[in-house]
Write a structure and sequence with these properties.
Elements (H helix, E strand, L loop, with lengths): L5 E5 L3 H13 L3 E5 L2 H10 L4 E5 L7 H11 L6 E5 L4 H10 L3 E4 L4 H13 L6
Length: about 130
């Protein structure tokens, strides 16, 4: 496990956030939550999560805008897993082009989420 085991979950749906939080805390991760991209940026200023999991479509600042801000304005290399119920090829490619390291289809399944996080760890996207 990484020395910093804090993960930021960004989703406007409280049920999705709680479900992912439950999955992650079960594996020993510390979880921060934000309801949109704007709140996520505030949390990023005072925390240093080693991974961000964000929905792409939310009111106010979307996950798409959040990823753009993180990559282009803040120039952070923190790994990002994008989430969406839309898994069309165009959206998947768009998410990767924005700077997402992975994309996962909603509804989230625990074993798939764990696999994606482990894959990022193996590929050294996450500093251990």
């Amino acid at each position: 496990m990484a020395l910093n085991n804090q993960i930021l979950i960004v989703d406007d749906d409280p049920i999705t956030r709680e479900l992912i939080k439950f999955f992650l805390e079960e594996k020993g991760y510390s979880v921060l939550e934000a309801i949109n991209g704007e709140e996520a940026l505030v949390k990023l200023k005072s925390n240093n999560p080693f991974l961000i999991i964000t929905d792409l479509y939310m009111p106010e600042k979307t996950g798409i805008e959040l990823i753009k801000t993180i990559r282009l304005d803040l120039k952070l290399s923190v790994p990002i897993i994008a989430m969406s119920s839309d898994d069309t090829d165009d959206l998947v490619m768009f998410a990767f082009d924005l700077g997402a390291n992975d994309i996962i289809k909603k509804p989230i399944e625990a074993h798939i989420l764990y696999e994606r996080i482990n894959k990022l760890l193996e590929n050294k996207w996450i500093n251990t």
